[in-house]
Amino acid sequence: SEAEPFFAALDKFKSTQWQAGPLVNGQTLTGEHKTVVSPFDTTQTVGQVAFADKAAIEQAVASADAAFATWTRTPVEVRASALQKLADLLEENREELIALCTREAGKSIQDGIDEVREAVDFCRYYAVQAKKLMSKPELLPGPTGELNELFLQGRGVFVCISPWNFPLAIFLGQVSAALAAGNTVVAKPAEQTSIIGYRAVQLAHQAGIPTDVLQYLPGTGATVGNALTADERIGGVCFTGSTGTAKLINRTLANREGAIIPLIAETGGQNAMVVDSTSQPEQVVNDVVSSSFTSAGQRCSALRVLFLQEDIADRVIDVLQGAMDELVIGNPSSVKTDVGPVIDATAKANLDAHIDHIKQVGKLIKQMSLPAGTENGHFVSPTAVEIDSIKVLEKEHFGPILHVIRYKAAELAHVIDEINSTGFGLTLGIHSRNEGHALEVADKVNVGNVYINRNQIGAVVGVQPFGGQGLSGTGPKAGGPHYLTRFVTEKTRTNNITAIGGNATLLSLG
Ligand code: UN1
Asked: Given 15, 168, 299, 377, which residue has the most CB atoms within 10 angstroms?
């Protein structure tokens, strides 16, 4: 079949052992390192990664700082074409990158395919957007003899801190935006996915991003992250991860003596779907299952709380139980797998504890049993539980766990209040065949992304700009037309051109 060459190419990487480490001025540093194991089977190694020490951090920031003056004056077309070249190289290396997504991050093959696609889209989109944004914006005409111009340039060294759940797409989304806008970058990947980030940076250098312009520092938040965000030389921070960490970074930046610098944060959610009695149960369940359980629920966009109007609740729950029975749990490198492992032992322990707790508080709808072959991995049973109120969920539970709440038609205003009361505002799903009703709910719930009569994951770059409100993030939306605006600083230059070159200039202007 047509798919065979793809799987054969993927297969070539099934036992590759990668060696990764900090990339400082293009040199891979060695030193204190750890062995990376697969979340699917912790007896399988993926490679070795060395972590950045103090000297590496210092050298990376100093070099990125020194490289800024030249990079930000490099024509935007040159920066954009390097990012287009990077997109080409991602496509050329896609089997290796997909294999890494499955082996290092435990993502399914379908998720790996989507991940490479999204990384490519981000590079191309920001390349195009930067050219638009940074070409001289038009201003109103000023007085005769005065020349007014608006220039956009990078802010300096941008620190990009990215999550393990999109180790290539969000990693390169942040990095490509910062670079396109004329910043130099020090990138810190999630500790759990340092090999994927390492390969991405190597490809960026190969594409023509100068090695001093893009530095790579794997390590922990406590060491690398804290040192970078506290550094007086940085010009901005772009972060995707937990709300708590975003607040911590904000506090660190607020203590900065010499500057006020921006944080662009995309954080968690307590995402709901509201289903009224006019909707179709089979379609609802299809969208619930993909929103809650694919990627093992490890997307910030994932559905956590399903509100079912009571007239339809029993039917939806019935179909849901059947659909959950069909989920294939197992090896992410098998194309049949729907639900792979969660990222690590800590994630598994927290999610298992939440399942035990929520089963006491609520009523179990279904908990899948884990099949043979998953014993060595960080697997969490896909679980659905009925609860009374969103308030029993004190935080986001980042895994394959769905909470269901029944509501009466007359209680819709209360449902909207409950969702808004969480303070999060990332995604919202609505199922209804009454358009007026759907649009009313869409309007009243404070979220960044609303999806009507479909699933609520998988925002497409440039098509569905992605990002939340409130506790879910600062904006601007990733993959949207305004994202780059926060990565630049502006300079208005007003020049009284009559003062230089004598009256000739003035006369020539009429
Ligand atoms: C995240 O999970 O950190 O729409 C955000 C989506 C993805 C979510 C990315 N863009 O599902």
From this structure: 168
